[in-house]
Amino acid sequence: MTGPARFLRQNCLTLAFGTAFLLTLVGQAFAGCAELNTVLTSADLHPLGCGEYVLTSDFLVDVTENWQSEFLQFFLFVFGTVWLVQRGSPESKPLGDIGRETDEKQKLGAYATPESPRSASAGGLRRSLYSNSLGIVMLLIFLLSWLAQSVTGVVTYNENQLRELQDPVGWSTYVVSAEFWNRTLQNWQSELLAVASMVILSVYLRQRGSPESKPVGAAHTATGVEG
After folding, report:
1. Cβ–Cβ < 8 Å for 71, 147
2. DSSP 8-state secondary structure symbol assigned to residue 222
3. Which pLDDT score, from 0 to 100, does residue 1 have?
4. Cβ atoms of residues 184 and 72 within 8 Å
């Protein structure tokens, strides 16, 4: 197998979902542009081109609103599964492994192997940060996208206020408003429901060949077992 073919095969999961992400983002841009232009035209305002639309707060608030809820989901799941378990779910650790686990099991410090990342065998702050790096990055992306949502959201909100000849509001007023929290909590509840559903449904249902499922013949009580 040649180099490019091997690369595609070894990274096809990321490449497939990354490509699907870009396609849906482009589709969202065209659909959102058409929707906004319908509103602008009905108000006797000049319509926008798609290139102009993707730089508007209308597009950016929708994008960042979705991103922050997704990364909140991943952050909570990454950190929550350290201490929380679900009997029979492949999304859970075995019931006896609750907590941060031993250095030996995590291959840290003296227990690191030649294949382990260098930070795993390092000490002090470097190892501590690396030991929590996945959750930290997910948290940072969530916070940054949530901040971006609030900034673009207040711009969009004030544009609507001005169209209706009402006073604009400041950022601090907007982030405690019903408008902001209605948009935010709509996304959060859907993401949390999706995670809870995946955790409990995978106890009793199977998908042959998927690492997100237990082997088809595994007992319902088997925990932390992947297919």
Report:
1. no
2. -
3. 67
4. no
